[in-house]
């Protein structure tokens, strides 16, 4: 069976796996973004705290994804739970780092001006600092998403959702008629999803970042 014939016969299953893969990555990115930005807000004013937050995120990335998911299985079981926890943890570093860099890069004169017109600390953060820090934060989100697209394939090891199931089935049956087709279909599906997500982020950037800041 050729690759195109395989796609024609299995398109429904591949589409379902693709939707599950995209959904898992999207949900984990939302969680990682919220956590990462909050950590950045809490730590960016202190050099020591920012270094600790960045180092903690970097340390998580040194743990092999297969090992982390394997360690989570005895704690939370198989399926979605270990996938969500692992992906959220892996997605933190670029967002935390870029949030800290972006917030530290805001012009102090603008913050002083906001304070001078009577803005509270919270309003300064929401109205001035976060909007100006948004471009690097969005870049961190894009980087994290690209990483998680590939890491999410390992979720199949823990009976998680996504295109990793197709890849794992193909690897487990190497030598059979459709083994290569399964691996290729899963891999190309992940690449296409990564490109679609990145295109969406480019659009979000154009809609949310003023032209002057982009320039």
From TrEMBL:
Pfam families: BPD_transp_1 (PF00528)
Keyword Transmembrane helix: yes
All residue ranges annotated as the ABC transmembrane type-1 domain in the record: 18-201
InterPro entries for the chain: ABC_transp_perm/SBD (IPR051204), MetI-like (IPR000515), MetI-like_sf (IPR035906)
CDD domains per record: TM_PBP2 (cd06261)
Compartments (UniProt record): Cell membrane; Membrane
Keywords: Membrane, Transmembrane, Transmembrane helix, Transport
Membrane topology value: Multi-pass membrane protein
Transmembrane segments: 24-44, 56-73, 147-168, 180-204
Family, similarity comment: Belongs to the binding-protein-dependent transport system permease family.
Name this protein carries in UniProt: ABC transporter permease
Lineage, opening ranks: Bacteria, Bacillati, Actinomycetota, Actinomycetes, Kitasatosporales
